[in-house]
Amino acid sequence: MPAWRDRHEALTSALAELPTELNDAELPFDAQLHLALLRAETTVQRGRGLLPPLKRLRLAAPTVDDFNPVETLSSSGAFSKVELVRPSKKLVKSATGPLMVLKTVERRWAFRMRAHHHIRHEVSILRLSRQPDCNGRIPRLIASFLSPTSFHLLMAHAPRGDLWSILEEKTTARDLSSGLPEDWVRPWMAELVDAVEWVHEKGWAHRDIKPQNLLLDADGHLQLTDFGSAAPLQAGTTLIARKHCRVLLGTPDYIAPEVLKHAERIYQEEEDHEEELERSTFGAEEARSQVEQEARAYGAEVDWWACGVVMYELLVGSAPFFAEDISETYERIVHWQDNLAFPSHSAVSSAAEQAIRGLLVAQAERPSSRRIKAFDWFSPIDWSQPRSTPPAYLPPIRADFPANDSFAQSQRSFAPSFDYASFLSSPGLSILRPPPRTVQGAQSEEQGYWEARDYGGLTTLPAEGDFTDDSARAALPSNSSSPAIRAASRPQASAFETPARPLSRLVHLSHAPPTGTAIDGAQQTRSVRSNRRGLSEMDAWREMQEHAWTVGMTARKQRQTQAPAGGSHSNSLPSREGAAPLRGGWPLIETQPVEKSLPEREPEDEGARLGGLERRQRAVVQQLEVIDEKYRGLFELAAKEVV
Q1: 234 — alpha (psi -120 to 50), left (phi > 0) or beta?
Q2: Between the CA of residue 425 and those of 3, 78, 431, 448, 540, what are the distances in Å?
Q3: How confident is the model at residue 156 (pLDDT cuts 50, 70, 90)?
Q4: 299-344: per-residue pLDDT in tens?
Q5: Best exposed site among 199, 428, 540, 587 by fewest CB in 10 Å?
Q6: How far apart, in whole angstroms, are the C-alpha atoms of residue 164 and residue 184?
Q7: Residue 518: alpha-carbon gap to chain centroid
């Protein structure tokens, strides 16, 4: 009898023996188990003894030690890690189990950053992978569970990599100034449209679609992954409530214009409501009325904009609005009519260009999935079964993973420990701790977050055959023994990865970038390989803070310099010279009217007293610089765990 089946039976027996006051019998089994394990954890932390059924629950529940690490796929410093693993002999009796992906997030960090990375949303969406109608559109969730310091997600492995890796490898090997063939991209984009439509129908918006989050399974079909930025849609609509949009989320090159506009509005409101900042710093929910929290921010159509950016990038070789400076990227996105252009040498067909231009439009004009499927470029696609057609290109599967995981396990076992709790409690990191409240209130809030009662808990047990069925591992192509092919498909770890750049499953090639491409007669330096923002975790965080501020600050400066003589001015960006006609100061963006008008403010002269939010923002950035220097050694030590 398989080892996991034995442990599952032990869990069932121990849970049934719990006293009534310790067992939420009206809940599903996984939710009961989740709350019981949290009670056991709290009891141990308070130095009390456990009842025998709780002891058996803790012994039989999944733990990180049940999985042998094979390779680190990505790491956000000391706070999160994505590993390729195999189930150990504690779960299976065979010598080698199937490859799986284990995502680990440090719990205290996840709670502090819960407005930036929605763990509970991610679990909820991944659980949909177990429904029959998923049809492989997203990776299958095998298990999710808590450990004393971390939260873990175990998912099926997509062995053929991601589209970003393919774009990096193929464009460098073929021609830096061009993208991938349309015959390759069309079926992938069709499967992406199908996956996004399915996610929307399930009541969610992804909000971070990019090539790194588009995986290929063993059959070469596309899977949409990484739902940490996802938000629920309001019932019966495609709208996202403001309470899920309090911070700027996503990846700069793929953010829709209306997201930036909403961010500007939020930052303006923050400045006008400085007294609420103590409750909102770094993403905690603010003390606003329920009506304001539920009001519309923007809609699921932000995903269709991102699909258009992805399609452009795959076919052209670079993102349409990429700039080395993130604030310039935001500026290009806001004024997208002026900056959406195709290189003169581009081989993109007129039908493909029409499809891209049909996606990269104003919010009110963005098409539905039904209209997208009717694009001429998608005419060869059978939308009744878009995943039935074999892909035009099938990337190779790696075959050089170690058969014996004992060395990798020893590396994890003897890695230097890191006291995250003490680190986050350091006086120098006071900006990472909760705002001043009672200790009991803060602990109760964090406990409630991890209980996740409204989400059915966070524990998901594996199915009986998850650790024994290895059907997901496809046979290696006959020419896979070639060293060149193995080298091309081997993921390389970059020096640092961040929450904004979480994946490193790409080939870092050393070829020189192109000198530039001519677009509409003007030379613009756009390197395919230069559009990665190589930053350490703290640098990326600092840039996110700095450039999120520029979303609102740039608009205010422009209004001040261009305000009418009478002193009154609009709450919107002015039109740039030569730009298309604007509505409300923003280029052809239709959004819901602001629920309340902002009071008019007198423009400040250069050098005048900084506004409250700007002053606070600069202080935060300075603190981050001090932290980066003070704890550099600790960050480097933690990074060595994944080398």
Answers
A1: beta
A2: 40, 15, 10, 20, 22
A3: very high
A4: 999 999 999 999 999 999 999 999 988 889 999 999 999 999 999 8
A5: 428
A6: 13
A7: 33
> Mapping DSSP to helix (H, G, I), strand (E, B) and coil, where does residue 206 land?
coil
Long-range contacts, 582-588 (Cβ 8 Å, 24+): 586/257, 586/261, 586/334, 587/257, 587/334, 587/335, 587/336, 587/337, 587/338, 587/362, 588/337, 588/361, 588/362, 588/365
Q: pLDDT for 565-594, tens place per residue?
A: 444 443 343 333 443 333 333 333 333 443
Position of tokens 């329920």?
A: 290
| Structure-token match 């994890």, residue found | 412
Q: Using CA atoms in the order 111, 430, 615, 499, what is the torsion angle rounded to 10 degrees? A: -40
Residue (of 258, 226, 215) closest to 118 by Cα position: 226
Distance (Å, rounded) from C-alpha 427 to C-alpha 230? 33
In which residue ranges of the chain is CATH 3.30.200.20 found? Answer: 3-158+399-455
Beta bridge partners of 102: 83, 154
Give the C-alpha separation, 605 to 331, whole Å. 24
The full length of the chain comes to 643
C-alpha 119/C-alpha 136 separation (Å) is: 21
**Mean pLDDT in residue range 360-371:** 96
Q: Which of 62-76, 241-255, 437-451 has the lowest mean pLDDT?
A: 437-451
Strand partners, 240: 298
Token pair for 525:
């330096």
- List Cβ neighbours of 59 (8 Å cut-off, separation of 6 or more): 10
181 vs 167, 216, 306, 521, CA distance in Å? Answer: 10, 17, 20, 25
- In this structure, whether the domain defined by 164-396 belongs to CATH 3.30.70.3270 is answered with no
| Whether pLDDT at 204 is above 90 | yes
Q: How far apart are CA 403 and CA 400, in angstroms?
A: 9
Q: Which has more pLDDT, 125 or 75?
A: 125
Q: Which structure tokens are listed for 362?
A: 């104003």
One-letter identity of residue 51: L
Q: 3-state SS of the chain: helix, strand, coil percent to 5?
A: 45, 10, 45
Closest CA to 314 of 303, 306, 304, 323: 306
Residue 537 near residue 631, CB atoms below 8 Å = no
Which of 213, 209, 232 lies closest to 223, judged by CA?
213
d(CA 261, CA 584): 11
Q: What angle, 0 to 180 degrees and rounded to 10, lies between the N-to-C axes of helices 326-334 and 257-272? A: 110
Q: Outline which parts of the chain fall under CATH 1.10.510.10.
A: 164-396
Check whether domain 3-158+399-455 has CATH 3.30.200.20, yes or no: yes
Closest to 620 (Cα-Cα) out of 550, 563, 566, 542? 542
Which residues, at least 6 apart from 132, have a Cβ–Cβ distance to it below 8 Å?
A: none
Share of the chain above pLDDT 90, in %: 45
- What's the Rg (C-alpha) of the chain? 25
